[in-house]
Structures are given as C-alpha cells and as structure tokens.
Specification:
The chain is of the alpha/beta class. It contains eight helices and six strands; from the N terminus they run E-H-H-E-H-E-H-E-H-H-E-E-H-H. Strands 3-4-2-1-5-6 form a six-stranded parallel beta sheet, sandwiched between helices. Strand 3, helix 4 and strand 4 form a beta-alpha-beta unit. Helix 1 packs across helix 2, helix 2 packs parallel to helix 3 and helix 3 packs parallel to helix 4.
C-alpha cells in the first residue's frame, strides 16, 4: 500500500520505522558479551511498543535482523535466533494485552523450523488486535523485498509498474512510513525499507538502542512535527491547498 498523507502539513507520524542499532556497542561499553546487548534491546522494543501506543502511532516497523547479519560471527547469529524464538513465546501475552497485531516480515528460507513456527504462531495469536500494528523485519533486506515483489509479479504474469510493485511488497498491508529513526549514531539506511522510505522523514540519534526511551522517541516525533512534507510540490502549492481546506472547513461550520 503506497499512500501519501492527504494533508502534507500533518504533525502526526502514523507509521514509525526504526533501525534498532547499537546493541553490540552497548554491551561492549559495559564489558559484556554482545548477546547481552541484544537481550536489553528486546526490553527497549517492549518499552517502545508501549510508548508508541500511548502516543497515537498506528504502525511501528522495526529492523530486527537484516539479510546481511548472517555475516556476523556464528555464535552471535545463533544467539540472535534463539533470542528471537524465546521472545516470540514470551511477548505474545504482552502484545495481546496492549492490542498489538504482529507481522513478521522477511525471507523464511534459512530460518530454523522452530523460529518459523514461532513466527506463524505469534502472528495468528495477535491477528484480532487493532490498536497498533507491529512489523518485525527479520531476515529482511530492502533489495530482497523489491526482488521478491518483481519475481511474484513475473510468476503471476502481471506488468511491473510502481503500483503493482507497491502492492507486492512485503509491507503492502500498511502505509509507507512517515518517520524513520535510526539509533546508534550511524547515518545510513543499511538496506532497510528502500522502497517504502522514499518519502519518509529521517531522524538519526546517537542513543544506543537499549537506552532508547520516552525522551528519545518524543524528540524524534517533535522533529517530525516541525517538518513540511511536500511530496514534490512547492511551498506555494501546499499553502494554497491548506488555505482551501481551511476555507472549506469554515464554510461547513457556519
């Protein structure tokens, strides 16, 4: 679903995407194994989900494990897989309590049967929730997403256009992100949501992901609220459209 907001001057980020970076560095600064940082990262995600729900965010998409993360040391990869499997089991009750619907987005090939089963069970268990959609991108890459969408269209004999590709993307069930946050101080997308983030507002923070809290989220949302989203239009066009909408609203209230 590739949609732009009707009002480009809106101050609300309905869809927030996050590159949760800095878990390993958080652990290393404390002389802990990298996996300890990833475990604290799960705590930060739980906290962030609750905060987004309180602030009216409707969709939260997070980068949990990228296609390139397979290149990390085997011990860390195995630890991340185990952590994911355990987190899925433990967090479902909390997601249910907070009305969160979970989507696990990414390539299933290469994942263990245990992880795949956990992904499916967690999705099914939360399918009836509607307060917040949580997309966990696991074994995901932006280039993979574009390629799989193109392959699907070719297999179905459909033409490849911006519209058809958008509908075939792994995140077609939600609007494109309004705000993309990256923690940890790095200033790049790292193959995350390359298609969907075409018009997202970007916010980079040096805060390492395990330390990401309400103040950090509010700073990102406040920055978003100050930006003008033009989607290729000029300032004059936006002002004219805004004035016309205001006049129409005033006439309706008379």
């Amino acid at each position: 679903m590739n949609m732009h907001a009707e009002n480009a001057l809106t101050a609300t980020a309905h869809h927030v995407a996050i590159v949760m970076d800095g878990n390993g560095r958080w652990a290393q600064k404390r002389l802990l194994p990298r996996l300890a940082g990833h475990k604290r990262g799960v705590d930060a995600l739980r906290r962030c989900v609750a905060l987004c729900g309180e602030r009216g965010v409707r969709v939260l998409t997070v980068f949990a494990f990228s296609s390139e993360n397979w290149n990390r040391p085997e011990e860390e990869v195995n630890g991340l897989m185990s952590l994911m499997a355990n987190a899925l089991t433990k967090e479902v009750a909390s997601l249910q309590e907070h009305g969160v619907r979970l989507y696990c987005v990414g390539e299933r090939a290469g994942l263990s049967a245990k992880v795949c089963e956990g992904l499916e069970q967690a999705q099914q268990a939360t399918a009836g929730n509607s307060r917040l959609i949580l997309n966990v991108c696991f074994n995901y890459g932006g280039r993979w997403d574009i390629a799989q969408a193109a392959r699907r269209l070719c297999a179905e004999g459909k033409p490849i256009t911006e519209e058809t590709l958008g509908r075939a993307m792994a995140l077609a069930h939600v609007p494109d992100p309004d705000l993309l946050i990256r923690t940890g101080g790095e200033l790049r997308l790292s193959n995350f949501l390359l298609w969907q983030a075409a018009y997202a507002e970007l916010f980079f923070t040096p805060t390492l992901w395990p330390d990401f809290d309400a103040a950090d989220l509010d700073a990102a949302l406040a920055s978003f609220a100050q930006r003008q989203r033009r989607f290729g239009k000029t300032d004059e066009q936006l002002r004219s459209r805004h004035d016309a909408a205001s006049s129409s609203e005033e006439r309706e209230n008379v």
